[in-house]
Amino acid sequence: MDYKASDHIQDLQYFGEFGGVNPSISDSSTYTFLSAKTMFDTFEGNTEGCYLYSRHSSPSNLYLGEAMAQLEGTESANVYASGMGAITAVILQLCDSGDHIVCSRTIYGGTYAFLKNFVKKFNIEVSFVDITNLEVVKETITSKTKMIYCEAVSNPLLEIADIASLSKMAKKHDMPLVVDNTFSPLTISAAQLGADIVVHSLTKFINGSSDCVAGAVCASSEFCLSLKDVNNGAGMLLGSTLDSLRAASILKNMRTLHIRMKKHSENAHFLAEKFENDGLKVVYPGLESHPSHELMKSQMNAEFGFGGMLTLDVGTLDKANALMELMQERKLGYLAVSLGFYKTLFSASGTSTSSEIPEDEQKQLGLTEGLIRFSIGLDNDIHKTYKAMRGCMVDLGILESKSALV
Ligand code: PLP
Q1: How many domains in the chain?
Q2: 192 lines ligand 1 (CB under 6 A)
Q3: Rounded Cα distance, 389 and 332, in Å
Q4: Mean pLDDT of the chain, nearest integer
């Protein structure tokens, strides 16, 4: 794939009011017009370059939107106040009462809860399927299906969606493939592989400093504009607007995303291999033991590696909790949800970010109680981190002895 999203982001240039190297922040909720006619036309969506009201759009949000469009190589992108703000707007924009969605069964707990519980209010039906089984996906599509929804790399089980094949299937039925690419920005160019709409939680790797929540929708100009429509746009009417100050700070952080992703991947790959050699149950798309390792290789942008997320199953929730507490005590990371921070973050998914999924369904998915999800940090000396993590596991009896340590 010759599409280099990182270069496109680097090449975007915006100057501040006084020639500053960063664009000025639009510190206004409303904008003046010289003529009433232009105000009317702007309401109707017919005026380029005019701003009306910041829930609709603002210069700072448009800059970040342009960077997100460059990231995925889409015509356009809108930004939102959270990943869920982006996801819910897309789903409600695409579906009417009586419609049906085919959705991966392993997705972020909040998205799962929205699709399992909330959309019932709108009489929208959802079938949760094993997205890696293309036959099942195909069989689940009905005449009422309005979209296929999945995560490129799933939360928390790190299943890999075959985006090109799913896209073909969606196109055949004349509906969009919506992909959440939160776990794999730069690593996977979902839109280049055929996704029609790509959603992101910017809260994670893209912002990278765990200081805000934000989201984005990357898609065609037509779809992005439809979300902003003053009469029917789910983005405009649900009102999940990102604040301009935050949009500006996220854009600045995005300039270093390519460096951070490489380091997250390098560190995660190193730990995954070491843990596997130690005989631990580790899941990481970069390991040959991952069931979709070859698929991941075929659809990733190799220079960014296999991503910063891995899971480790230590058997029981008690052991998982003890390990996480000890690792935190020894300053190896934080017992916290979320991902993409400079410091390693870990949580037991079944009792945290996926707790919305009922226990019996968790079992069916293979989401075991001892499963710890790691977002590996930007540690400078990952060898030292590994030794210290291994030390924690030996002290807790998760690993037998220190003898194998090199
Ligand atoms: N998508 C994925 C894959 C996530 O992991 C999350 C949050 O953890 C979200 C979406 C929701 O994002 P936000 O918390 O920014 O609303």
Answers
A1: 2
A2: no
A3: 7
A4: 95
Taken in order 315, 318, 321, 322, the sign of the CA dihedral is negative
Q: Are 177 and 188 in contact (CB under 8 A)?
A: no
pLDDT at site 403: 52
| Closest protein CA for atom 12 of ligand 1 | 83
* Domain presence at residue 403: no
- Cβ of 110 less than 6 Å from ligand 1: yes
CATH number of the domain that 261 lies in?
A: 3.90.1150.10
β strands within 341-397, DSSP E = 345-348, 371-375
213 and 275 fall within a common domain: no
pLDDT per residue as tens digits for the range 199-233? 999 999 999 999 999 999 999 999 999 999 999 99
Q: Which amino acid is at 89?
A: A
Ligand 1 contact via 203 beta carbon (within 6 Å): yes
What is the value of pTM for the model shown? Answer: 0.96
Do 261 and 245 share a structural domain?
A: no
Clarify whether residues 293 and 238 are in a common domain.
no
pLDDT tens-digit profile of 19-55? Answer: 999 999 999 999 999 999 998 888 877 677 889 999 9
Cα 285–288–293 angle (5° rounding)? Answer: 45
Residue nearest atom 2 in ligand 1 by C-alpha distance: 108
Cβ 81 under 6 angstroms from ligand 1? no
Q: Which of 254, 270, 293 lies at the terminal end of a domain, its last residue?
A: 254
**Same domain, residue pair 185 and 324:** no
